[in-house]
Amino acid sequence: xxxxxxxxxxxxxxxxxYQNPGNFDIFRPLRKLVDGIPVKNNRLAHLICRVxxxxxxxxxxxxxxxxTFHIPAICQINPLYNEVVGxxxxxxxxxxxxxxxxxxxxxx
Length: 108
Description:
The chain has 108 residues and is an alpha+beta fold. It contains three helices and two strands, in the order H-H-E-E-H. It is 32% helix and 9% strand. The protein is flat. This is Mo-dependent nitrogenase-like protein. Residues 27-107 form the Mo-dependent nitrogenase C-terminal domain.
């Protein structure tokens, strides 16, 4: 039985960043800007870790008249959420790997 060679594992496989050619992404320049921020300074890395929270600050439970209402995390609707979280992760990784610092103060 002969196998048919092909370039990727599945004929419909596309990388996560795949975009249809006709789609226009208004946030692409901002995404590239945030992804391109180099973390090469421990002062900048500490600032990034202090400014960007480790969990969504808007998620909470509100008690009103004896009932508890849950407000879900809304940070995921931010179009730059993944890039900002990635920047924070790069800053944490820089502090641990390059500077050898303890980052437990920045982890929830």
